[in-house]
Amino acid sequence: MKVAMLRATPVVALAACTLATAAPVRAQDVAGTAAARAPATDAEWRVWMPEESAVPTPALAFAETAEDVGSYQKYYYFHRSGTSFAEALADIRQCDEFARGLYGGDYYPDPAYTSMYGIGGAFGGLIGGAIAQAIYGSAEERRKRRVNMRRCMSFKGYERYGLSKDLWEEFNFEEGNRHVPEAERQHMLAMQAKVASGPQPAAEGLGL
Questions:
Q1: For the chain, is the Cβ count within 10 Å smaller at the N or the C terminus?
Q2: How far is CA 110 from the centre of its chain?
Q3: 112 HSE (CA, 13 A, CB side)
Q4: Strand intervals (E) in 45-198
Q5: 3-state helix, strand and coil shares in percent for the chain, rounded to the nearest 5
């Protein structure tokens, strides 16, 4: 009897040791798998497919003011009935790709600056042009992106609904002279897709 008990003791100890070390190993494996699944490049972010339940639902309810109504050309969201989250995200991503970098104009000086005022005139013109580009060029890029997003999403059958600026800024971005990092961009597009595929808005649509 004593021999049997002595033989069993190492087995029990081994089992206890295995149970003690198993949980940390599994946790490390899960953490490693999650890290491996996270997009590592911009190209991977563009095809990243989050779980719908993990995407925050933006707030849309607000007390409309005259100022809000006057800003609906800038601040709005899209919605299409009977659309899944995956469909909405694919549509918004495609329209976002179409709307990127479409502004091709510039505000740099005419060659006449150089002929009339020499190198000093050209230098001054470049400075003035750079300032104008920062002010007007950025605004024009933002405007063109809004127009192209509206046209693209309207073509795909989405209605547009007005939103207050404060709520809009929670899940949207403006892209003029500022580059929006791909990870930040895709997280916001995912929230836009959640709204676009969510419950039917009670508000009246704005059209194109």
A1: N
A2: 38
A3: 1
A4: 76-79, 159-162
A5: 60, 5, 35
State the DSSP code for 66.
H
Distance between CA 152 and CA 96 in Å, rounded? 9
Domain ranges of the chain: 1-38, 42-104+135-196
User: Which tens digit of pLDDT belongs to each residue from 10-66?
Assistant: 444 444 444 444 444 444 443 444 444 778 998 999 999 999 999 999 999 999 999
CA distance 8 to 38: 46
Structure-token match 């100890």, residue found? 13
Q: How many residues does the chain have?
A: 208
CA dihedral of residues 89, 86, 208, 142 (deg, nearest 10): 0
Residues 58 and 170 sit within 8 Å (Cβ to Cβ): yes
92-103: pLDDT as tens digits: 999 999 888 533
Which tokens sit at 52? 């719908």
CA distances to 26, 127, 154, 178 from 107, in Å: 59, 10, 31, 17
**With b meaning 16 or more CB within 10 Å and e meaning fewer, what string describes 59-75?**
ebeeeeeeebeebbeeb
Six-digit token pair at 181? 């990092």
> Residue 13 is inside which H or E element, if any?
helix 2-37
Sign (positive or negative) of CA dihedral 55, 31, 12, 7: positive
What pTM, to 2 d.p., does this model score? Answer: 0.66
